[in-house]
Amino acid sequence: MTDRFNLYRFASPATFYPLAGKMIPWFAAAAVIFGLAGLWLGMLVAPTDFQQGEGYRIIFIHVPASWMSMFIYLVMAFWAAIGLAFNTRLSGMMTQALAPTGALMAFLSLWTGAFWGKPMWGAWWVWDARLTSELILLFLYIGFLALTAAIDDARRADKAGALLLLVGVVNVPIIYFSVKWWNTLHQGSSVNFTKSSMAETMLWGMLLMALCFWMYAIAVALARARVIMLERERHTDWARAELSGKEA
Amino acid sequence: MFKIILAVIGRDLKLAMRRQTDIVSALFFFIIVVSLFPLGVGPEPDLLRKLAPGVLWVAALLATMLSLPRLFADDFRDGTLEQLALAPHPLGLVVTGKVIAHWLVSGLPLALIAPVLGIQFDLSTDALLVLTLAILVGTPALSGIGAIGAALTLGLRGGGVLLSLLVLPLYIPVLIFGAGAVDATVSGLGSEGHLSLLVALTFAALGFAPWASAAALKIALE
Amino acid sequence: MIYWNSFADFVHMGGYGLYVWGSFGVTALVLVVEPILVARRRKNTIALLKRQLRAETRTAERSPNA
What we know:
The complex is a heterotrimer of chains A (248), B (222) and C (66).
Chain A: H1 6-11, H2 13-45, H3 59-86, H4 89-121, H5 129-150, H6 154-185, H7 200-232, H8 237-247
Helix pairs in contact in A: 2-7, 3-4, 3-5, 3-6, 3-7, 4-5, 4-6, 4-7, 5-6
Chain B: H1 2-18, H2 20-41, H3 45-67, H4 70-77, H5 80-86, H6 91-120, H7 125-152, H8 159-186, H9 192-221
Helix pairs in contact in B: 1-6, 2-3, 2-6, 3-6, 3-7, 3-8, 6-7, 6-9, 7-8, 7-9, 8-9
Chain C: H1 7-12, H2 17-62
């Protein structure tokens, strides 16, 4: 069964494990380089924002973290669909590997949002549609992690988690729409985002930081996927070879 | 097709009638939770009127959650579920029947008792009517979405708490439009927009959720 | 090219120091701790699996027909 299809061969842990091992240092290095460049531009070169003062600099981590939190959820849903459709072992491991990073990104988005909101709006938390949706996204991540952690059998955990992800991804637009609707109805607490035109250096700084977060997420997820692979495939030949090779 | 659904509804209702305490307990849970709020925030009618839609709806969400873990658990334990999964008719239809039966014993009683509790919160007659209507058309969506969670957590330790973790975030749209309908009536705006969206959610949930639940059940039965 | 006049200005962030450094600090902490946790999990897993593998080969050697 192992070598029959090229597609399956590529998606098989035996090929993926060493490949990921080779790729991780590159992604990690890219993350560091993009991060340093982004911080240089954002924190040292970029001028102050005329409306928000220096407080706006939180944008350089808040926006990348928010983007990644949503993007990772979509990627997980993509792997979930692949896993349910083609029954590949790799997809379950990838969703497992991505979920903690996604949850951390959602947490960072909320944390930096609070630290941004306090000086700008005078409150650590406002029930703004975007913040509320981000909070719900964090709940969805926690639900996924809790469900897969509660199931001992790895195959069932993968499938149940994949199904939950697909249900979640269908619901996310509905949730976002309803929260937005709710937010416009309760105008009392709504907050206007001042849409100032961003200076070019600011935009570049933000894009570089977004790339940094992206590369970071890939590197960490691949590293975690490798550990999960070893754990699950410990009885296969390649895993044994890998383990005994390390012994020498 | 309808024969299967009706047969499952009839069977589940018969089983539920043998365990009436479950239904009554969930109903009293709803009543007690709603009655606790005035004790917590004070008896000012203005404040209570403002809180009523949210309080009643959150309590309704929690009350429907109570009976969800049992939705498939008994059939799973005695092997009925496995038989149903192997049967020639699609499992989604069976789940549709179970969802409707669940609504009849959990959502419907809540809708019937809600106006009485609304009086405690000094709601007007219009608002009471809309509240009843909203709970009536909104709770089927809760049963449907809840069935997915119940199927995913079937047979797991700590299933009940896990179930609420999975399902409550997905309940948010129903909460928003359900409470929004009553809120709109209280503040003199029309509730039609909210109610029609609530109906749309219910239809979407009833069409989609049983099949997702059926897929989850098959995963659990493997 | 650098926007700031002094290091003190940089730290002060025009009065927003607490908020800016509060966000950047926690983010940096998370981005450093997460890889460390993954690396530690990897180390522990490999150690555990190696121990299991050695135990298995030892029992296999002792009873070659099993």
